[in-house]
């Protein structure tokens, strides 16, 4: 199996397990991680996880587990998740992680929800032969029972990817429709990302470009008040401007070209986007993108 499969993103662990696992959270000093109001006794292990020091993180979780009062649900969850990244990746470690997650998932606290999510993730990405049906079932259960929770929202995004590209479907239109039906359940930032995913999938499956443009514009409107990386924001402006021009919507094309020029004046695509818009405005056929 490829090593990349076994990297657990430290930011997810920290934000989802430590900060959200406590009833209240407070910020640590600048450059530090977010800590629960009652600081985690395994904070060093979580820091190691965030820095991708998987082996060190696992050793620290195991050390804390043996301390008086250290055998908590949080620490057991951390120890299980760290096993997914410990090198070398061994079947026994994955089996131990799976067993611990299954045990923790029977609870009703935040750590139980995290365990349920990672059970589904293991079915999807931590097997020689991925069990996509089991993963989807796990995600659906989280969405159904805890749809507004952090882990339910994370499950929604994973299920969307599986629905668009992996799970059985009659045709591309059915895949797209199934994910569009998820939009009302998504929080604004996730709805924005679903629209971007739907736009990409619409073009990938060679569905109407007008549909892709509608999703891009919806994502653009949501992004006006939401954080978004500069790279993705610039890409989105270019896509909207280019598609709008090619579909004859010149006012919208010019509006997004102006956004690109204002926010990213040194992006070389300012020139290429302007060429497309000017060609359409002159009644000429623009170059193939």
From TrEMBL:
Keyword Signal: yes
Keyword Signal: yes
Domain of life assignment: Bacteria
Keywords in alphabetical order: Signal
Signal peptide: 1-24
Protein name, entry field: Tetratricopeptide repeat protein
Organism: Horticoccus luteus
């Amino acid at each position: 199996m490829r090593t990349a499969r076994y990297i657990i993103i430290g930011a997810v662990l920290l934000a989802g397990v430590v900060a959200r696992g406590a009833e209240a959270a407070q910020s640590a000093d600048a450059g530090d991680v977010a800590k629960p109001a009652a600081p985690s006794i395994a904070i060093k292990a979580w820091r190691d996880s965030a820095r991708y020091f998987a082996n060190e993180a696992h050793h620290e979780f195991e050390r804390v587990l043996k301390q008086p009062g250290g055998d908590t649900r949080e620490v057991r969850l951390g120890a299980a998740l760290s096993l997914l990244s410990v090198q070398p990746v061994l079947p026994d470690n994955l089996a131990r992680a799976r067993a611990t997650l299954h045990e923790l998932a029977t609870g009703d606290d935040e750590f139980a929800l995290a365990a349920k999510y990672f059970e589904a993730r293991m079915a999807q990405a931590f097997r020689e032969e991925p069990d996509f049906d089991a993963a989807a079932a796990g995600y659906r259960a989280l969405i159904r029972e805890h749809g507004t929770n952090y882990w339910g929202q994370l499950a929604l995004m994973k299920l969307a990817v599986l629905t668009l590209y992996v799970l059985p479907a009659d045709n591309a239109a059915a895949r797209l429709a199934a994910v569009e039906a998820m939009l009302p359940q998504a929080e604004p930032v996730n709805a924005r990302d679903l629209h971007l995913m739907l736009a990409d999938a619409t073009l990938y499956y060679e569905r109407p470009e007008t549909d892709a443009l509608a999703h891009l514009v919806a994502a653009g409107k949501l992004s006006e008040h939401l954080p978004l990386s500069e790279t993705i924001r610039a890409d989105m402006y270019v896509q909207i401007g280019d598609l709008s021009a090619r579909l004859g919507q010149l006012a919208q094309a010019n509006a997004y070209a102006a956004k690109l020029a204002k926010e990213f004046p040194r992006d070389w695509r300012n020139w290429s986007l302007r060429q497309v818009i000017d060609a359409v405005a002159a009644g000429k056929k623009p170059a193939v993108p």
